[in-house]
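sry for the spam today, last one i promise. struct tokens for design, 397 residues
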């Protein structure tokens, strides 16, 4: 066969229309790809619940929200959040193969409770209710400085806040997460301690106590409980109780989870100079506000050789660990707030090169603490720094 014949045969095989081209596409190469379906909030809710179901299938138990295992604790907290929302329970019932969403009915009486004790664990002869062999608990007499709960005389001002928060929990607008740390004990925060909701109404002035090791700080709180009582406990005391007794924080549902497994963005730190230079040593309330992603101690290791630290050793007077946020932006906001009291001093390094350190401010430590709390709570936009009176004041706008 000649080359001309080959060309004629090839030309005969070329489709003459678009329809023939499409019909000849037996492998579907010309088919339009299907557009990906948009993932809805209902889809995300179902996927989140199916992870809990898979945990139940694998481990033959429901995940705990109080365990130290981070992955399990997240699933447990997620299940707790679902159980307080009737809407979510109704939406997920078709996927609930293990009855995870079915709340057991409470016994109507003591007799009914005892009747459900199939193993007879509550019987007196079993010894479980016999406490005669237990050591007598020593009575502890608290000092006058220990805060006690008392009736909140103006509770009617706070009662609507608790009702609103309970409604948000039922509607899914708010949720409970394990207590994330003391930096979240700020005015306006809600927590749950031993099943009782509490509200941090006020944080008092910072008190400083010098020890042989460090300068400790503490603040009195005004804590309102939903049962109509209040306490003036210290912030540290509330933090310890929330940590030791598996307390929870209430957060808006759209906020990211703040747990131990979350990535630490960095640390905002506050330093005090130990310089002997009269230009520095004679300044009261001189502090450096900085940011580091690593340990603060590592950052300041060679402070006496760096003009950034005024060529002198420094003391760490405060540090704040930040989660899931751009801590450098927080640092910049503090710098702008205190720009009027920035230290203007030129320093030379060991090679004689001149530097103008930009992170030193003449501002009291308690004001810095207050500013960081207001930034965390979102209220800083309503305040400016009054350099003359050395305090934060409401802005005129």
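last one done:
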């Amino acid at each position: 066969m000649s080359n001309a014949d080959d060309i004629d045969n090839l030309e005969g095989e070329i489709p003459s229309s678009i329809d023939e081209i499409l019909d000849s596409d037996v492998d579907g190469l010309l088919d339009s790809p299907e557009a990906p379906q948009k993932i809805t909030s209902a889809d995300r809710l179902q996927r989140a619940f199916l992870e809990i179901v898979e945990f139940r299938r694998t481990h033959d138990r429901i995940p705990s929200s109080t365990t130290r295992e981070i992955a399990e604790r997240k699933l447990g907290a997620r299940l707790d959040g679902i159980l307080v929302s009737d809407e979510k329970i109704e939406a997920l019932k078709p996927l609930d193969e293990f009855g995870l969403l079915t709340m057991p009915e409470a016994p109507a009486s003591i007799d009914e409770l005892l009747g459900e004790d199939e193993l007879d664990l509550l019987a007196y002869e079993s010894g479980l209710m016999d406490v005669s062999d237990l050591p007598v608990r020593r009575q502890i007499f608290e000092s006058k400085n220990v805060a006690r709960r008392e009736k909140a005389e103006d509770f009617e001002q706070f009662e609507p806040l608790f009702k609103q928060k309970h409604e948000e929990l039922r509607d899914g607008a708010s949720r409970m997460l394990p207590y994330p740390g003391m930096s979240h004990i700020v005015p306006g925060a809600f927590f749950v301690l031993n099943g009782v909701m509490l509200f941090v109404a006020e944080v008092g002035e910072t008190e400083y106590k010098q020890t042989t090791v460090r300068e400790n700080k503490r603040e009195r709180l005004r804590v309102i409980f939903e049962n109509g009582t209040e306490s003036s406990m210290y912030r540290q005391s509330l933090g310890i109780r929330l940590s030791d007794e598996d307390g929870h924080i209430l957060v808006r549902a759209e906020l990211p989870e703040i747990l131990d497994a979350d990535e630490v963005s960095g640390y905002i730190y506050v330093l005090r100079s130990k310089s002997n230079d009269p230009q520095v040593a004679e300044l009261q309330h001189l502090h450096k506000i900085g940011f580091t992603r690593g340990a603060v101690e590592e950052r300041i290791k060679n402070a006496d050789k760096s003009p950034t630290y005024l060529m002198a050793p420094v003391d760490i007077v405060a540090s704040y660990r930040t989660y899931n946020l751009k801590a450098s932006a927080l640092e910049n906001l503090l710098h702008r707030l205190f720009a009027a009291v920035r230290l203007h001093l030129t320093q030379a390094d060991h090679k004689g090169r001149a530097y103008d350190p930009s992170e030193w401010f003449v501002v009291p430590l308690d004001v810095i603490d207050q500013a960081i709390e207001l930034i965390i709570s979102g209220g800083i936009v309503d305040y400016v720094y009054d350099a003359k009176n050395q305090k934060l004041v409401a802005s005129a706008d």
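The chain has twelve helices and 15 strands. ok im logging off now
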